[in-house]
Design a protein that fits this description.
With 254 residues, the chain is α/β, with parallel strands linked by helices. The protein has a single domain (4-16, 56-234), classed as Nucleotidyltransferase, domain 5, CATH 3.30.420.10. It has helices at residues 103-121, 149-152, 154-161, 180-192, 202-218, 230-234; strands at residues 62-72, 78-86, 96-98, 141-145, 166-170. Strand 1 (62-72) and strand 2 (78-86) form a beta hairpin.
Amino acid sequence: MGSPQGLGDGPLRRAPRLGGDRPAPAARRGAAPGGQLPARTPRAGRQPPGGVRDGADRPDTCVWQLDFSEFETTGGGTWRVAGCRDYWSKYEHRFHISPTANQHDAIAAVELALAEAAELTGRPLRDLAEVDADGNVQPVVTIVTDNGGPFRSFTFEAFITTHPELRHVRTRVKTPGQNGSRERGFGSLKYERLFLEEIPDAIDLAAHAEDYRVEYNTVRPHEAIAWNHPIDVHLGHADPATPNFPEPQNLPST
């Protein structure tokens, strides 16, 4: 994240919205019982976030969607890729690759995202959080996951508790659309890169995944964010609802 979703030196933005006019879970006063998203949360990724369509300012609470995806190499076994994806900007944080998909791998993926957020903003994410009158740090990022064992574990929740700048909510059972942007990102990674390559082992897998991540964030334009680059939206340099095409040049007629 970083100035991700505009978390720079300026004021924090309002929470992004998942598809329609209803505010995202990060913006709501409270999640459903058990820390889950409300059942009628619109499916993510159908439209650009609505927060800027009506002239609203940038969201002040970021949403990172986290999950695992498997990939089988030609000679090095099956590996699990975990990573946080920013819902607002579609920015892909660094991937964690491991033969397992447990609570420790989930924590490692979040730690990679926190480290990258600090690099992008020049300071730890916690320093960007506001503190209420009672001295409590207000969450800056809401991490959305499914109900897999790693995300329901005590170890993962204890990790979240030690990071007051983070908040964790889970999707409703059998509601994958509530984490749809993350799933869409894994699909792009596989079909646009990994499935097109001969990948023998985890080292080669990590190299291909990182090359694609950099290209995805900085080179490839995205229709979901008005053909902007995720890094530009992430840092607040572009509006996810406003195209930023180069100005046309009129050549002389003679």
